[in-house]
Amino acid sequence: MAFKESSSSSSTELNFIGGGTVVEGTVRTDNSVRVDGKLKGKLICKNTLTVGLNGEIDGEVQAKNAIVGGKIKGKVSIVEKLVLESKSVLIGELKASKLIIDEGAVFDGTSDMGNKKEEPEPYKKPIISQNPSQ
Asked: Is 67 within a domain?
């Protein structure tokens, strides 16, 4: 059996936005989604987002995991891991826990890995007392 049926919250369903298809607006899914066409708007995916080589997203993306082979322009928020494949382009604002960028991928924007650590205190030169009696 290719897919195992389970009563758990994970699902084996996969949604497609095929090549030649343009979707405008908000797309929400509890399952995985693959974009080979174009999406303008907002995508909320509670599982894995895959953007195919010819896929394009212009807008806001929220997903658990993402694998990008195409192009995303906008605000991207990934809960776990984002993979930018070798021919991918990401332009915009990125927030992800883990980021993998393959050689050849283009990322132009800002990133937040969510691992805020306390900034070290700036180096302070020690004060050396000058005792004239010595």
From this structure: yes
Counting the structural domains of the chain, the total is 1
Tell whether 9 is covered by a domain: no
Q: What is the DSSP string of 46-81?
A: EEEEEE-TT-EEEEEEEEEEEEESSEEEEEEEEEEE
Q: Is residue 54 part of a domain?
A: yes
Q: Give the model confidence (pLDDT) of 40-56 as tens digits.
A: 999 999 999 999 999 99
Q: Is residue 100 part of a domain?
A: yes
Are 40 and 24 contacting, i.e. CB atoms less than 8 angstroms apart? yes
C-alpha–C-alpha distance, residues 68 and 83, integer Å: 6
From residue 107, how far is each of 9, 13, 25 by CA, in Å?
33, 30, 25
The pLDDT tens digits for 81-120 are 999 999 999 999 999 999 999 999 999 999 998 765 545 5
